[in-house]
Design brief:
272 residues, mainly alpha, Ferritin
Length: 272
């Protein structure tokens, strides 16, 4: 393997990689290199717009409303659900590396945080891909959508906007819906997948918390009120479109304030 000394060059290599297993291996390798002090923060290449991060030819990407809905009590239904989550975790590897690659001049701790996220997303993807294979299929066998990466492209101009909208909106959505998926899988008797989702939910609280940490850091740096800035960005980019349920306990653990939770519940039409 070519010797790389810049973290940003390593990040681009991981982003460009199209083979899922190799992307996982490269991620683990370069995270170790960083922790061993073998990668620096020298800008050895210009920051490029990335319309599409490296991914395999399958799954085919379709609009979310074209994805087939299957009952979780069936074998195909469980395959489709695990495949959908597996695809999210694959995208999340790319999102974490893009947060490293794209945004320069951040504190060193920022890069350590997002490398931790990349490593954990790679682990989640590997767990779910193995589970798919146990269920009789593989990653790429079902269609998927590209919503996560589309938001990465919409937020590639400003690290503050990225921290607000990818971890604190899209990834936080996983905190809201995963408990319901766990309950449905328990009802279907799928204890193996439940165990994986419990690991992922625990780790994803930490990932959203990292987004919160750096969003608040950037707001303070720019003299902005974090709560009103978050609300304004949610309105600008998502038209204030928030869906129930809201997992308050998980979101509090990830750094959401009481006022933010009240705002989100109101927009989702949740009134107590």
């Amino acid at each position: 393997m070519e010797m790389i000394t810049s973290l940003f060059v390593a990040a681009k290599r991981c982003l460009d990689c199209t083979e899922p297993g190799q992307k996982v291996s490269l991620t683990n390798y370069y995270v170790r290199q960083w922790r061993d002090g073998l990668l620096d923060l020298q800008d050895q290449q210009p920051v490029l717009a990335i319309a599409e991060a490296g991914r395999p030819q399958t799954p085919a990407l379709v609009p979310p409303n074209q994805l087939s809905r299957r009952k979780i009590g069936t074998e195909q239904g469980r395959q489709a659900l695990v495949h959908a989550i597996c695809h999210i975790e694959f995208n999340a590897i790319n999102l974490a590396w893009d947060a490293v690659y794209r945004f320069r001049d951040m504190p060193r701790e920022y890069y350590s945080d997002w490398l931790q996220v990349a490593e954990e997303e790679a682990y989640h993807f590997s767990l779910l891909r193995e589970r798919l294979q146990q269920l009789g299929c593989d990653y790429g066998d079902y269609d998927a959508h590209n919503g996560l990466w589309e938001m990465a492209c919409k937020t590639d101009h400003d690290v503050l906007v990225r921290m607000a909208l990818v971890p604190r909106v899209l990834e936080a959505r996983g905190l809201d819906v995963t408990p319901g998926m766990i309950q449905r899988l328990q009802g279907a008797g799928d204890a193996r997948t439940v165990a994986l989702l419990e690991i992922i939910l625990r780790d994803e609280i930490g990932h959203v918390a990292i987004g919160t940490r750096w969003f608040q850091f950037l707001c303070q740096q720019r003299g902005l009120d974090a709560e009103s800035t978050f609300a304004a960005l949610l309105q600008e980019y998502m038209q204030g479109h928030v869906k129930a349920p809201i997992h308050e306990q998980a979101r509090r653990a990830a750094g959401f304030s009481d006022d933010e939770l009240t705002m989100l519940k109101q927009q989702a039409g949740i009134y107590e």
